[in-house]
Known about the structure:
This protein is 32% helix and 23% strand.
Amino acid sequence: MTNSLTAKxxxxxxxGKLIGDGNNIISRLSTDSxxxxxxxxxxxxxIKTPKRDGHSYIPQLINRGVKSFLITDDAIIRRDxxxxxxxxxxxxxxxxxxxxxxxxxxFKRDQxxxxxxxxxxxxxxxxxxxxxxxLLSGEKxxxxxxxxxxxxxxxxxxxWGCEKECDYAIFEAGISEPGEMKALHEIIRPNIGIFTHLGxxxxxxxxxxxxKCLEKIKLFEGCDKIIYNADNRLVDICMSxxxxxxxxxxxxxxxxxxxKVEKIExxxxxxxxxxxxxxxxxxxxxxxxxxxxxxxALSCLTFLLLIGEDASAIKVKxxxxxxxxxxxxxxxxxxxxxIVDDSYQLDLGSLxxxxxxxxxxxxGRKLKxxxxxxxxxxxxxxxxxxxxxxxxxxSQKHIDRFIGVGATLCKYKSLFESDIKxxxxxxxxxxxxxxxxxxxxxxxxxxxxxxxNFHFEDIEEQLSERIxxxxxxxxxxxxxxxxxxFRSHLKKETKMVSMxxxxxxxxxxxxxSRCLVAEGVDYLAVAVADEGVMLRKAGxxxxxxxxxxxxxxxxxMFEYNLEPEIYNFSIVKQMIADAxxxxxxxxxxxxxxxTGMHRLGFEKKDLPELIKLLKSQNNIRPKSVFSHLxxxxxxxxDDFTLHQIALFEEMTTMLKxxxxxxxRHILNSAGIERFSQYQFDMVRLGIGHYGFSGIExxxxxxxxxxxxxxxxxxxxxxxxxxxxxxxxxxxxxxxIGVIGLGYADGLDRGxxxxxxxxVVRGKKAKIIGRVCMDVCMIDLTGIDAIEGDDVIVFGPExxxxxxxxxxxxxxxEVLTGVNERVQRIYVRE
Length: 829
C-alpha cells in the first residue's frame, strides 16, 4: 500500500460523487486551512460547525494551490464559479464529512500490518504516547498521533497516516460525552490497550465516575491485552467486569498486579521504582518525581515488559525519558510580573503540575507566586470533598496568594488557610472591577487557570495592558497600496512572501500580518520561532517561514506548523532527527543557497551530498529553495546581481530534478522592481512594504508615523544650558519644550545636540541637548505650540530616510529601533 490515493479512489472508498476528473494525487488530509503545507497533495475536508463552515475557505485554498476537496455542499461550485475542469480541481461530494473521514481512516487501518496501540484515560494520554515512541524508536518503526489528535476528527486524521509496513501504530482516543467511544473504537481497533488515569475531566457529562470509566474502556473491545493501574479500584472493577482476566495486564501496588510495584523512592530530580514481574525482581530510574509522571512511566514499563523487552535494556531506556512540554505559555505583564496561561483544562489532575510549574518559575525569577482560579465546571458528586482537596493542595504547594473567582469558591472560602493571602470574588467582572486603576500585582508569577465559561482571557488582557502616550501610527491602507505596487510587477501565478520579522520591522507583526493576509499574501516570514508562535496564537493561519531557526526550537515549529529555513548540514541533520523523534512526515522546510552573500546557505559543491541525505528519509521535505541578493538596489552591483541569479538558476536546476515541486525565489524588494524578469516562482517583500523603493527618485507611501506629546514648555534665557552634560546651549532667549520620547523608546542619542529635528504644528524644531532615557528637549522658539500638542518624530512630514541619513545609517535600523513600550496605533483611510 502507498500512502497516496487518487481522488477517484477516495470517491470510491467514501461512496461520494466525484466532480472533476479524479486524477489528483492525495497523500494527506486536512480539516484546518491553517495547517496546510503541501497544498497540491492535500484533500481538504470541509466540515460545518456551529461557528465555522469549512466550505467558505475553498476559494482561498484553491488560490493557494489545493486541488482536492471533500464537501457536503456543492453550492460553493455554483455560487463562486469554481469550474473543476478548467481549474484541475476535484470535488468529492458526500452526505456527511465526518462519516467520510471515518471511512478513509478505516480503509487505512485495514491495510496496515502494524501492532496498533490504543490509549485512553482522563490525563496522560499524550505523554504515554510520546514516551512509547521515544522508547521504541531506533529499533522499531513507529507511527503515532500528531500532537493531541484524539477527538472524533483527530483520530481519523491520525489513522490516515498509518503505513502498511511499520511495527507499531500508537493512537490516542479522547471522549467527553457518553456514546462517543464506539466510533473511535471502530477506527482504531487496537491490538493493545492502555488506560492511563481516571480523573475529573468531563465528569459533568456523565452520571457517575463509573459510567465515564465504562465509556472509555469501550476502546479496548477486541484487544489482545489491556494495560492499566490496578491501584485505582474503580478502574480495576470496571476492567474485570468487562474483559477476560487473561487479557488484563495490571501494574501497581495492588495484590493482583502483574507488574507489582514494591518500592518507590525519590532522590533529587529522579525516582527509583522497584518492581516484580513474573517472579523476577528489578528496578528502573526515571528522571521525574511527579506522581502523575510516575504513573505514566509505569504504563510504559508494563508495555515494554509485555512485548518482551529485556529488563536491562528497559532500565537504560527509561532513565533517558524526556519530559513532554506542558500546554503552558509565559507572557509579560505589568509591574515586573509574568502570566502563566494554562487554558487546556481545569481539574485537579492538571492543576497540580501547573502549580508546580508556576512555583518553580517564580523561584527561578525571584518572584512571588499567585493563582487566579475559577470554579470547577460541572461538579456533580462530592462538591465539598473536591474543594477540601483543592484547599489542601494550595496549602501544600507554598503559594503566596490565592484568588478564587466564582460563587462556589466563595461558598467554600473558609476552607483555605489564613496563612496564605486569599481573595474571593463571585465573578470575573467583580474581580476586574476590584483591580481597575490599582497596582494589584507586583513582582509576581501569576497562574491563570479557569473554566472556559469564565472567559479568563479578559483577566490576562487587563493585566497585560500597557499605556504610553508615545505612539507609532501605522497606516494599513498605505501598507496595502505599497504591497500591490510590488504585486503589479509580477505574473499572476507568482507567489509573494511578506517579511514580518523583528515585529514587522517594528510596526507590530500581528496587525500588519492580518492586513497582508487580507490583501492576499501567500507566505509570511519571521526571524525566530517565537515570532511565528505569536502569529499562530493570534489566529493567523497563512504559511510562515522561520528565517533563523534555533536548534532547540524545532519542537515548537512542529507544534505550530512553522516552516524553517535550513542553511547547513548540522541544522538539517538536527531537523531530521527531531522530526523523526516526533513522528513527522514530509514536514516542509526552505533551503537556503549561498550565491554570493557568504553569510548562510549551501554552496554548489554541497548539493550532491545534500540531495542524497534528503532522499534517504521522509521526515522532512524542501518546500522552496532561495538565495539572497547582495546589492539589488545599487546599479553599481548589477553585474554581480546577474551573476548571483545565474548561479542560483544553475544550482536550483539540480534540485528541481530531484524535487520537481520545489519553489524558487531570489528577488527582494529592490529586486522585484529592478529585476522582475527573474521572479521565478516566488518573491520576498520586506522594507518595500513601508514605502522604500529600490529605484532612485521613486516615491512610495510612507506607512509609519512616530508621534509623541509636548509634556512641558518653559522660557529659557540666552546662554543657559539644557539637559545632561550642559551640551545644549541657548543662542537666544528660547522657548524649550520637553517631549515624552527618549532613547528607551528608540530615539537614537545621536539625534541630540541639534542633529535631529521633529515637526510641531507643521514646523521643524531641533532637538536641543542630549537625548534622555524617557524624554528629550526641543527648541520651540517661533512656533505657536502649547503643552499637549502632537510632535512628529518621523513620518510623511519628516521622512524616516532623512532621519536615518542624519545618523549615517539605514531606515531599517530607525524603524526596528522603536521600543515595544511604544503603542502601535493602526489606521485605515
